[in-house]
Amino acid sequence: MVQDVTMTAERVLVRPAAEADDPALLALDSAAWDSSSGFPSFRAALRGSFFTERAGPQSYLVAELGGDVVGYVKLQDKYQFAEGAGVLEVAGLAVSPTARGKGIGSTLLDAVATEAKQRGARKISLYVFETNTSAQRLYERHGYVVEGRRIAEFVIDGAPRTDLSLAKYL
Ligand SMILES: CC(C)(COP(=O)(O)OP(=O)(O)OC[C@H]1O[C@@H](n2cnc3c(N)ncnc32)[C@H](O)[C@@H]1OP(=O)(O)O)[C@@H](O)C(=O)NCCC(=O)NCCS
User: How many CA atoms lie within 13 A of 167 on its CB side?
Assistant: First the structure.
């Protein structure tokens, strides 16, 4: 699945990730998250590569702007058993800080919806910290609704953090 979207003067291409994207995605990932959006312990862990054995390029779509990788979304089956079939999970969405506010996150979510429909999914699920209001606005614009609140699910920077469960029904 490849989507080509022209925004203002710039062209965003969404395509499946490839092994060769590893260094660019590693750099993007280390710049993209802070403690309002991600887990500090994940950022502190030394990583030699972006892709892992369990989540290789096949789990990701990437966004390119002017030939540079500027965003990614990780999309996977939420459950590994028959009864949960048809529920996809957005298990990571990030755009390079220098490329934000141009609709790249939105283009990636459009691509997720297209891909999910192609796979015959009935629902897309994700989690977002309650503190991450910019991401919540983006998801809401794309039809995601709050399904649940996991109150004080984590402790981040010494404070309890509530995690929201969001879903889009296809
Ligand atoms: C959340 C995230 C992926 C959004 O990516 P993005 O590319 O900036 O998203 P968009 O550009 O589609 O939308 C962001 C804002 O820009 C605005 N925008 C989009 N295109 C625009 C344009 N051409 N001109 C002006 N504004 C524009 C949107 O309306 C939106 O505004 P809002 O913040 O007031 O709601 C990005 O901020 C990020 O990587 N954050 C850190 C990681 C994260 O939080 N991930 C989600 C965890 S669940």
Answer: 14
Among protein residues, the one whose CA lies closest to atom 32 of ligand 1: 134
- Ligand 1 geometric centre to CA of 35 (Å): 17
Confidence of residue 125 (pLDDT cuts 50, 70, 90): very high
Q: How far is the CA of 133 from the centre of ligand 1 (A)?
A: 10
Q: What is the pLDDT of residues 51-92, one digit of tens each?
A: 999 999 999 999 999 999 999 999 999 999 999 999 999 999
pLDDT at 95: 98
- Domains by residue range for the chain, with CATH: 3-122 (3.40.630.30)
Determine the atom of ligand 1 nearest the C-alpha atom of 107: 12
Residue nearest (by alpha carbon) to ligand 1 atom 15: 101
Q: For the chain, how are helix, strand and coil distributed in percent, rounded to 5?
A: 30, 40, 30
